[in-house]
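Two entries, shown back to back:
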Amino acid sequence: MLKIRSLFKSTAIYGAGDLFNKVVGFLLIPLYTSYLTPQEYGVYNMLFLYSALAGIVVLLGTNVAFFRFFVNFGETERKKVFSSILFFITITSAIFLLATYILRDPLASLLLGDSSLSHLIILMSLATVAGAYLTILLVVDMAKKNAKAFIIYNGIKMLTNIALNVVFVIYLSLGVAGTMYAFLLSNLLTSLVVIPRRRSYLSFEFSWEKIGKILSYGLPIVPTLLAIFVFNMSDKLLIKLFLGLEDVGIYSLGYKLGSLVFLVVNAFQYAWTPFMYEAGTSEKAKEMYSRISRIYLSLGLLGALVLNLFTSEAFHLFVGEEYLRAEWIVLPISLAFILDGMAMIFQVGIYLKDRTKYMPLIALSAGITNILLNIILIPTTGLAGAVCATVASYFVYMIVSLVVSNRFLYVRYPWGRFALYFIGFAIIYTGKFILQPAGIWNIAWKGALILFFIIYIIRLDPPAGLLPTLEKKGIL
């Protein structure tokens, strides 16, 4: 129980920091929807799509392998691991930037539909490389469970990004290029803040042997990351192909707001990785994993409920009128992200038993599902088809992860309890439409619905000792 509390304490710290970063980051939505057209916002999102793929190519799984070769070693070995990874990504970054410069025009034509926008490809490539270095600088705090430092540095990055967006997009009117300058400089400036904290690890003590071991663990993860990229991002590419950049912008906004639930998933993921490697494969650990899955799902659905009860208010307060038709996308996308988090828990056997070679096949199954459904559904049903394909692909990803992982480390999960969580969520969410009082009473009613769900979860799966205490006090 103490380990579970430690995990969720770390999750809470990461979540609080992530919440701050997301709230601050979402201040950019009114800016972008006011100063960028839906088509320009589509260009912006295609560039970040490109950056996500480029980041995988530059890092080649070293950021994931970092935990495996850092957590269980002393400071001397940790220094070699850190230096070796920095040396390696310097090589991959140089190759990547050279290739990008040579291919900038065809890349701009393919992704943005206009070769004259090749300067945006160059800017985003530079920002991606800066982001790769920052990732390695920050992952040290994750590995050492220094959650507070990690979120502080991410907060600095986010605040710097917003300030620079105001300068470049509003005052200098640079449009999409301004967002790229802001992204690049925020990565560089945050790195300058973090580097002094990494002085003890910075040296020329890199080791080809260490690089070989890191790559032997990290490279098999790369196809997985690429497959995940496909099923996460192919919808935007196919929307661009079938519907155009304006619809990419609309879909991306709904997707971004739905990803607020990723606050729970992301915060949990930061805490989960080192926790999982420490907990191990014992029977007690397997019981913990089952218990953790219940806690995670209840918290994820609570987050989704809060988000979707107040989606209308958020859209009318912060989003430009041209983007209002993205509102309905938020609910299914938020549920898809919850499935993504469940998949992460279900993969425990794959990572603890060093069976990462199966991860590409798992992600590929979801990617193929995503692509096929998008090709079939988008031409006939538009954005609704893309949303359905996204939810279906995350579901496939979760189920296949479970089936494969349980071959190597069997964990019994409470499927009946999971079903009751979703049923309760669906029933309570429909209350949003059953009663629609005006003004402050609408807010009060939605607050009551959230309270109903919390009570429902506690009744269904109370934390140890909590339910008797609440009943004794007459609260329940």
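entry 2 starts here
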Amino acid sequence: MLGTSDKYTMNIPETLKFTEDHEWVSLDGDVATVGITDFAQSELGDIVFVDIQTVGETLAKGEKFGDIEAVKTVAEAYMPMSGEVLEQNEELDAAPELVNSDPYGQGWMIKIKCSDLSEFDKLLSAVQYKEII
């Protein structure tokens, strides 16, 4: 795709941290809000279903927390940090397209009670994430 990297260097909020698997993380105390990046949603295309069955579970960093179903593919979403999945964005049940239209806002996916806050510091900065896409 021509110009893809140019478009996505502009929509990578400096206030967030990122994973190589294209999840973003916002931290408030010991609770992290997680979603997929604008780059990831654009690569997936039109998202039709978000399946998260892990609320209440404690998962390790890197473990799968859910599936994202697009028109042409299904992608797995991974824990960017270890902790308990406190809640999922229930708005996505009725409007999964929010992940496409507002990936860093209304399209968030889960909230995690983090068990190891030092993992946050090991996530990618916006500058580092731009380098991998």
